Amino acid sequence: MADHSDPNAQWKTLSGLGTTAVTALLFVFFLQFLPIVASGEPVRVVWDWVPSLGVQLSFWIDGLSLMFALLITGIGAMVMLYAAKYLAGHPQYNRFAIYLFSFMLSMLGLVLADNLIALFVFWELTTFTSYLLIGFVHTDPKSRRNALQALLLTATGGLAMLAGFILIGATQGTFELSQLNAAGSMAEHPFYLLILILVLCGAFTKSAQVPFHFWLPNAMAAPTPVSAYLHSATMVKAGVYLLARLHPSLSGSDVWVWTLSIFGAVTAVFASFMALRQTDLKQTLAYTTLMALGTLVMFLAGSSGYAITAAMTFLLVHSLYKAGLFLIIGIVDHATHTRDADVLGGLARAMPITAAAAIAAGLAMAGVPPVLGFIAKEVAYAGALEMQLSVFVLPMALAAFALMFAVAGIVAYKPFFGPQGKLPHAPHEGPWPMLFGPVVLGTLGLAFGVLPGISAYYLIEPAVNAVMGAPDKGGRVKLWAGFNLPLVLSLVTFALGFALYLGHQKLRRALIWIEARGPDLDAGWDTLLDRFVTFTKAQTALIQTGVLRQYIFATFGVFAATVLVTLVLRDVGGIELRLASLSFMEWGVALLIVAGTVVTALTSSRIVALVALGVVGVGVAMIFIIFSAPDVAITQLLVELLVVLLMAFAFLKMPNLDPDGVQKHSFANAALACAVGVGTTLTLLLVVDQPFDRRLTEFFEAASWTEAFGRNIVNVILVDFRAIDTFGEIAVVMIAAIGAAALLKGFARSGKADEAKK
Amino acid sequence: MKSVIFETGARLLVALIFVFSLFMLLRGHNLPGGGFIGGLLGAVSFIVYSLAKGPAEARKALHMAPETIAAIGLGIALLAGLLSFFMGDPLFTGQWFWIGGDSYDTAVFAPNSILVFDIGVYLVVLGGILSLAFAFDEET
């Protein structure tokens, strides 16, 4: 496999250990907030970012964001340490370390942001960094394709979400999450449904809910540490985080309950069947991640204490065991060079530490006491019983958890204690930097289960309070909750799960048969993209003809249409023409301009047309002189002169105007020219008809001498009052000139090259 | 395009137009003129030279690539604008210094950032247009 490291390569690199150390320090930094947040005091930090738009860079540390921050930095540090060894000696390891670190920071920003706009920016940053990470093996076209798929799908959802955020800001008057949530549910607002749909588009694509699920298994093209970090513990949970974060504002309607329950439940059950169907253990884990995301969404549909506690407990448990299992699969893959569930078995003897960590994670996944996973399942059943749609949610949860039990056996038990197949490589124990993460995560799962009071007080209950938007009574996270219905359901789950585990190979054959006959969304995605490319090509060919004349025609056509339609629609009334007051000189200049225009339009020689156009320009300059604006007149005259000169240079090389072309287009061209001319003239006459607002003129006349010590108002405006505009303009002049000169030189060079070839 | 009359006339014309362009630049603050008009006139003078003697000669007379002149002009204009920033005013606020007096009327000499900015405009316009004109001329 391409991403396997050389065991002798140096893994203690600055990029690897440096990023690990910084992430670990961040973890310690966030630990200090635990007692503060647990005592019920969220921390808020604010900077002004775009004050004119009311956008602040504000951070909000409450139970929910703190739990996420700890998971992100804690698991992040372990994954970075793991990756340093896993990818040791990889020629692009430094790049990888930077991608992973940037992702960690984006994710941290996402969960800590208190402002919806900031949240969106961080959200998109995680999309971009994950694109780079999924496509890390960029020599593989499949890896690039999967990275692009994830990017397009999640970024499209993200844009819909941004629209939803803007609507929230516009209707609620604030982008600050802390204020939004304090204001309570907005379910009564007329825009509620639209906002909900838009925000759910973002959350469901990011958290891979059916039917947007297919990108997540494909994203497993990334190296294993990435899968462990992004696609189990952190990024895919961003959607779940968003739903939890906005729970106080957006929940409280039947639409919320129904949508989340149905999407979540379908995803959970579909994904757990698909997990059983896979033989590649990494794919199996990918689908169990989908199952977990579905389950979390399903429980966030509820608003009762038990439902939210179930979601938060399961979120914590899942992050711990899933990251651990991914890392363990990486170690197994590293040691045996295979991830095939049918081949792997009996590894416990050669890899005892890995096996122990796997069992700890597997117990959590299966939900066996005394691990925290068991508590999560008990609370989940209690939550499901309380929910509005419990008739639907309870059987779905039961099915998902039973299937999860079976998958846990396949992933965590069978490779280590099951019958061994023919391994491509003799197994050996993993090195310590890779074992560190799984062992710690497994131990934590166990410790949190044995000491439910501590995990509940510091992590789960503050998070539950944050999601509910009000202090909850707590005390639901218990290892022994008494003999009740959830316990019975747990026992049913174990029995069902065990049966599924025993029969999983037969079931898999059946699932493969069904899958081959179901719709293939992944192939559908490719078809969709192909159709889109065909469409854009056709559309480009239609619009971008490459004929300058057509572009100019379209541009002026739109101009004439907008001006004339506006004039007609606004019903501007009559215009008084005071022709009698024109002086002899003014008549002369007007006739000169008209004569120049007529000659320009009728001649078939480019040079004559150019000179005639020059006459028009000179006429305009004379008008400026008549109305005593010498600066403008001089500029107009000089620009006219230069345009004629420069265009004459170009025209000398061009053939005469094509008489056929002129004939063919002349009527349409004349009509368009008349429309533009009439529209512009009428608009100008109307503008001149308005009483002139002299306030600016008076200011400049008064201030030009007293403030800027200049008597030429035009120049004073240019170089003093509006100097920054002038600076922008001369920058444009320079860029345009350099660009045009470069183009001309390029043509000259390629022309010479062509001649040389002849 | 070879013409003895034009070549001989151009020699006188070029110098005259160029000096006139500087005159227009310097008087711009109080009378018609300024950096933009001056720059256009300066460009015209060199284009006339280029027409008479060819673009290679004109480039030699300029001593510097027109693109460089434009870039220097842009830099000068920027520095003139930045000066106010260091003096504690908003960007691009005109800065005046009185020498030999304490106001515009009493000062013998009044150096200011406005003229410097205008010189920058002059150079950008001159260099920008010449880079285009020379490229056109050389291509034919």
Give the arrangement of secondary structure elements.
The complex is a heterodimer of chains A (about 750) and B (about 140).
Chain A: H1 14-31, H2 33-38, E1 43-50, E2 55-61, H3 63-86, H4 93-112, H5 116-134, H6 141-172, H7 177-182, H8 192-206, H9 215-218, H10 224-233, H11 237-245, H12 247-250, H13 254-277, H14 281-300, H15 305-336, H16 352-366, H17 372-386, H18 390-417, H19 432-450, H20 452-468, H21 485-502, H22 504-517, H23 521-543, H24 548-570, H25 584-602, H26 606-626, H27 630-651, H28 659-689, H29 695-708, H30 713-721, H31 723-757
Antiparallel strand pairs in A: 1-2
Helix pairs in contact in A: 1-3, 1-4, 3-4, 3-10, 3-15, 3-19, 3-20, 4-5, 5-6, 6-8, 8-11, 10-15, 11-14, 13-14, 13-18, 13-22, 14-15, 14-18, 15-16, 15-17, 15-19, 15-20, 16-18, 16-19, 17-18, 17-19, 17-21, 18-21, 19-20, 24-28, 25-26, 26-27, 29-30, 30-31
Chain B: H1 4-27, H2 35-53, H3 55-62, H4 66-86, H5 113-139
Helix pairs in contact in B: 1-2, 2-3, 2-5, 4-5
